[in-house]
Amino acid sequence: MSVNQKLLVRYPGGKRRLLTFLQDYLPDPSEIDGMYVEPFVGGGATFFYLQPIRALLSDVNPELIDLYRAIRYAPRKVWAVYCEFGNTKSDYHYIRDEYKPKTLIERAARTLYLNRTCFKGMWRHNRDGRFNVGYGGQARRWVITEKDLIFCATALRRVSLKCEDFQPIIDQTQRGDFIFLDPPYRPGYKEYINNHYVWQQFKYSDYERLTNSLQCAKLRGVKWAMTISSHRDILCLLKGNYALRIPRGTGKMPGTLTSDSGEVLITSYRIKSGERL
Ligand SMILES: C[S@@+](CC[C@H](N)C(=O)[O-])C[C@H]1O[C@@H](n2cnc3c(N)ncnc32)[C@H](O)[C@@H]1O
Q1: Could you tell me where in the chain the CATH 1.10.1020.10 domains are found?
Q2: What is the pLDDT confidence band of residue 116, given thresholds at 50, 70 and 90?
Q3: Distance of alpha carbon 169 from the chain centroid
Q4: Are 5 and 151 in contact (CB under 8 A)?
Q5: Which tens digits make up the pLDDT trace of 38-76?
Q6: Mean pLDDT across the stretch 237-264?
């Protein structure tokens, strides 16, 4: 895929804008002996860009994983239902609050519709697990076409899709596998209030679980790379690995980036200009 390929699912913090930077530090898919594993797949920018032959993708968000499952199985049917949904704010509220999908295809079409027409592609649920993001307009809805769903279905054909917490996914990796991780960042005040990702928060104890699993995976001969906020509480859990600050913004040349983003790339393997933690 090129960096310009459209992604079906909008994601706040998706990695698409960083692909030109990341590609220099990730292995070529042909060099991965085992499986490519992405335990926080979200919109899957990195997976769809690399298109590894053998992959395991997972996320704790069941609506997202069902969307990928349905698209893999019947992209044209998902598209047909998606096209039937209305174009107004009240249609959005009807689909969000009253429409009761009966099949996997209908559920997937609803998820795609809400993601493409809600405010900024956010995923937020109330305490009962109901999606409660406000209306964002139709501007992003028709940016995707049936062809993009078919592209996605082809890329997912041989992929194993799971809806699980990250820990068992990482713990089952073996020597030769490569893990790319883009966990929820250490939340700021606003994210705490708005509960940005699904209905659970990602807490400091989750970072501890995550980093423990990653250190064990490294000892088993698994390589991994992770993007994360460069907060010292998190970095000190990752001693012995390599860190590189991720620049932000578009430079003068297309695809180049400038100035600091507050994010870092951490790898279990040595990288050019990477600092040992
Ligand atoms: C920053 S987003 C990933 C964005 C993705 N890299 C992209 O390019 O679109 C983080 C993802 O982690 C998922 N997540 C949150 N907590 C999780 C957990 N405990 N286990 C697995 N996935 C989790 C969220 O549902 C969300 O999709």
Answers
A1: 68-153
A2: very high
A3: 15
A4: yes
A5: 999 999 999 999 999 899 999 999 999 999 999 999 999
A6: 73
Distance 253 CA to ligand 1 centre (A): 31
Q: Check: CB of residue 37 under 8 Å from CB of residue 173.
A: yes
User: Using a 6 Å cutoff on CB, does residue 274 contact ligand 1?
Assistant: no
What are the tens digits of pLDDT across the range 125-145? 877 778 899 999 999 999 999
- Residue 162 pairs in a beta bridge with 58
Task: Establish whether residue 197 lines the binding site of ligand 1, counting it when its CB lies within 6 angstroms of any ligand atom.
Answer: yes
Three-state SS across 45-104? Answer: HHHHHHCCCCEEEECCCHHHHHHHHHHHHCHHHHHHHHHHCCCCHHHHHHHHHCCCCCCH
Tell me yes or no: is domain 16-60+164-276 CATH 3.20.20.70: no
Closest listed residue to residue 163, CA positions, set 210, 128, 131, 198: 198
Q: DSSP label at 251?
A: -
Query: Spelled out in words, what is the top-level CATH class assigned to the domain 68-153?
Result: mainly alpha
The residues of the chain that CATH labels 3.40.50.150 are 16-60+164-276
